[in-house]
From TrEMBL:
Gene Ontology MF terms in the entry: methyltransferase activity; oxidoreductase activity
Keyword Hydrolase: no
Keywords: Chromatin regulator, Methyltransferase, Oxidoreductase, Transferase
Annotated ranges, domain SWIRM: 53-154
InterPro entries: Amino_oxidase, FAD/NAD-bd_sf, Flavin_monoamine_oxidase, Homeodomain-like_sf, SWIRM, WH-like_DNA-bd_sf
UniProt xrefs under SUPFAM superfamilies: FAD-linked reductases, C-terminal domain (SSF54373), FAD/NAD(P)-binding domain (SSF51905), Homeodomain-like (SSF46689)
Bias (Gly residues): 1-11
Descriptive protein name: Lysine-specific histone demethylase 1-like 2
Domain of life: Eukaryota
Region (Disordered): 1-21, 630-649
Originating species: Vitis vinifera
Length: 728
């Protein structure tokens, strides 16, 4: 029967099991390889033609491992116009230079790689190609990214490119924030939870001092060679543990599956997947609306394979593993698109990160201004910029990047004004997402075997094939004997409505029954529409927007780098089209405001006010400043604010509005905490808080008038000359 399915080898697998053809991942070996071919022979002098050819070949292989074709351009490179003519000598020379730059940075991801360093090792006749390749790689996040101190040192002290609000502090939002800061943007991140990381969350589990770090969300770095998360781990010197190939499967009664039967069914399973590929090539567009599950079952019956009970249980396990890899039921997976990301699959081993993925999140947060507990409900965008509203607070900027999960967009939990384009709304509605559940357990000891990272369990019932079908052991990286049981497919749907204690009882019975005896996915075409920016002001990131790397941590991270590049391009386009207009509407400088607010005319709580000292008219306009931030930073001195970067996460955010003396008095009289006064100011008075640059020419004129009047009057305190409490 196997011959009737074809004589080719197994097709692409969608599992973390049995990566037999891959070598173990070792950062030190990678370093040794690069150093051997590059480190000692990077100088221009004393290199033979043979040496150069060998280096070029090695650099091409490194570029290939990062995701670049050896002898061609990426579509993004073509669109960026990195060469003046395609398919000629210039393109070939560009590729050699590009690969060289990639290899140089991968040689030492701890240090910032400059153009000057590249010019030391590449002939000056290729200077234009150095500039073209370097700029493309830098601004698209292929080099000089991450969490090393050298990356932080490149963040400009003063923002030069505009302002961006990022909604969501997950991997996508944090990656974009750091990249935008390095580009010279002023950035603020609004996070609805009281923690960063989104669906990456490491929790301590255990009792009586026996604790372990368990990743309850994203947990596996899938394919290490080109994975940006591997670069972060390398920069932080965090050990990675290769998920070992051995994954024994157990029958429902606890008996180990015979290796020959196991291997035979796996081959049949992969050959059936090959047949699905052949069928969709024949059917063309007709395969779009046919589920992968129905095609596989039809083929199984057609070829009369997988007949016995044991074979069927094994086959069901592979189906469950496929549903796990796609986070969805096979009945909901398109036969046409289920494997669309296979060409982009990152090579190398799958790895666990010692101590949990929270360590990456913590490092990415450093130096990024994040405001927690800010649930965004409205995003307004237009030619003049954007407004993001969270509760009673209004944040203004040039652009906004929305990185919320697809489910939030589907629920319309955020109101967009104006409404999103019809095509984007349709894509959000039609793009699906799956479900995967986990049960994490900490035991007194590793009774399942120190040599195992994974093992599987077969089910008696096909509709329950995904219930606790695979177990991950994290004892090598978590600091304790941790097992995580996975639930996929239909079983994951039922899991949502089952009492947790019942589920725990089931999984413990499974372990007790045989182990103790030893001792969604989606229709992909719509992703590109969810990713699309709107009006050059509103951008979207997150794994749901990544066609190449969906449902993965690195997919979310890469989408953040992608959108940072898009925002930079859009900003420079705005600057070139409206430079004169921006100069006319520029607000007061931050230095001027800091100087004026050193001696406020009125101050209470978080609020400070300054007015023209030459008039006491209740209708006379002034400027109010409010310090927004955590309680430990709100009492920062003017000296600290003056001497620190506005991007410092340790200092409060200074927001401003223009109001009359009379309105200031009304705010002062509001009983209660500062939150009540802020609510009155925004809701009852209808005022908006903004940064200095958003105050425009009116704010600039008002600040200049107050500063000029103060210089004319010398040292004074308006509050000593005018009693605010006397206003009625």
């Amino acid at each position: 029967m196997m011959d009737s399915l074809g004589s080719g080898g197994p097709g692409p697998k969608r599992s973390l099991r049995k990566k037999a053809g891959l070598k173990s991942y070792d950062e030190n070996l990678m370093d040794d390889l690069i150093d051997k071919h590059l480190g000692g022979s990077m100088k221009k002098k004393n290199r033979t033609t043979q040496d150069i050819e060998k280096e070029t070949e090695t650099e091409a292989m490194i570029a290939l491992s990062v995701g670049f074709p050896i002898d061609a351009l990426l579509e993004e490179e073509i669109q960026a116009g990195v060469v003046s003519e395609l398919d000629g000598k210039e393109q070939n020379d560009y590729i050699v230079v590009r690969n060289h730059i990639l290899a140089r940075w991968r040689d030492n991801v701890h240090s910032w790689l400059s153009k000057g360093q590249i010019k030391e090792t590449v002939s000056s006749e290729y200077a234009h190609l150095i500039s073209s390749a370097y700029d493309f790689l830098l601004y698209n996040g292929y080099i000089n990214f991450g969490v090393s101190p050298s990356c932080m040192s490149q963040i400009p002290e003063e923002a030069t490119e505009g302002s961006v609000i990022i909604v969501g502090a997950g991997l996508a939002g944090l990656a974009a924030a750091r990249q935008l800061l390095s580009f010279g943007f002023k950035v603020v991140v609004l996070e609805g939870r009281n923690r960063p990381g989104g669906r990456v969350y490491t929790q301590k589990m255990g009792q009586k001092g026996n604790y372990a770090a368990v990743d309850l969300g994203g947990s596996v770095i899938t394919g290490i060679h080109a994975n940006p998360l591997g670069v972060l781990a390398r920069q932080l010197s965090i050990p990675l543990h290769k998920v070992r190939d051995r994954c024994p499967l157990y029958k429902p009664d606890g008996e180990v599956i015979d290796k020959e039967i196991d291997s035979m069914i796996e081959i049949i399973f992969n050959k059936l997947l090959d047949k699905v590929t052949q069928l969709r090539q024949i059917m063309g567009g007709f395969a779009n609306d046919i589920s992968l599950g129905s095609v596989l079952e039809t083929l199984r019956q057609l070829y009369a394979v997988v007949r016995s009970t044991e074979e069927r249980q094994l086959f069901d396990w592979h189906l469950a593993n496929l549903e796990y890899a796609n986070a969805g039921c096979l009945t909901n997976l398109s036969a046409a698109y289920w494997d669309q990301d296979d060409p982009y699959e990152m090579g190398g081993d799958h790895c666990f990160l010692a101590g949990g993925n929270w360590r990456l999140i913590k490092a990415l947060c450093e130096g990024v201004p994040i405001f927690y507990g800010k649930t965004v409900h409205t995003i307004k965008y237009g030619n003049d910029g954007v407004e993001v509203i969270a509760g009673d607070q209004v944040f203004q900027a040039d652009m906004v990047l929305c990185t919320v999960p697809l489910g939030v967009l589907k629920k319309r939990a955020i109101r967009f004004e104006p409404e999103l384009p019809v095509r984007k709304l349709a894509a959000i509605d039609r793009l699906g997402f799956g479900l995967l559940n986990k049960v994490a357990m900490v035991f007194p000891r590793v009774f399942w075997g120190e040599d195992l990272d994974t093992f599987g369990r077969l089910s008696n019932c096909s509709h329950k094939r995904g219930e606790f079908f695979l177990f991950y052991s994290y004892h090598t990286v978590s600091g304790g004997p941790v097992l995580v049981a996975l639930v996929a497919g239909e079983a994951a749907q039922a899991f949502e409505y089952t009492d947790p204690s019942t589920l725990l009882h089931r999984v413990l019975n499974i372990l007790r029954g045989y182990i103790l005896q030893r001792a969604s996915m989606c229709l992909i075409p719509y992703k590109q529409y969810v990713q699309e920016s709107v009006a050059g002001r509103l951008f979207f990131a997150g794994e749901a927007t990544n066609r190449q790397y969906p449902a993965s941590m690195h997919g979310a991270f890469l989408s953040g780098l992608r959108e940072a590049s898009c925002i930079l391009g859009a900003t420079r386009s705005h600057q070139s089209n409206s430079r004169k207009l921006m100069q006319k509407n520029i607000g007061p400088s931050n230095d001027v405001l800091i100087d004026l607010f050193k001696r406020p005319d009125l101050a209470f709580g978080k609020f400070s006010f300054i007015f023209n000292p030459l008039t006491v008219d209740p209708k006379a306009m002034g400027i109010m400043r409010i310090s927004v931030g955590n309680s430990s930073s709100e009492n920062s001195s003017e000296k600290e604010i003056e001497n620190s970067s506005q991007n410092s996460p340790d200092l409060p955010l200074q927001l401003y509005t223009m109001l009359s003396r009379e309105q200031a008095h009304q705010v002062q009289l509001i009983a209660g905490e500062d939150e009540s006064r802020l609510s009155f100011l925004l809701k009852d008075l209808g005022l908006k808080l903004m940064g200095p640059s958003s105050m425009g020419s009116i704010g600039n004129s008002l600040a200049s008038t107050i500063a000029s009047a103060r210089r004319g009057r010398g040292r004074y305190r308006v509050s000593s000359k005018y009693d605010f409490s006397s206003m009625h």
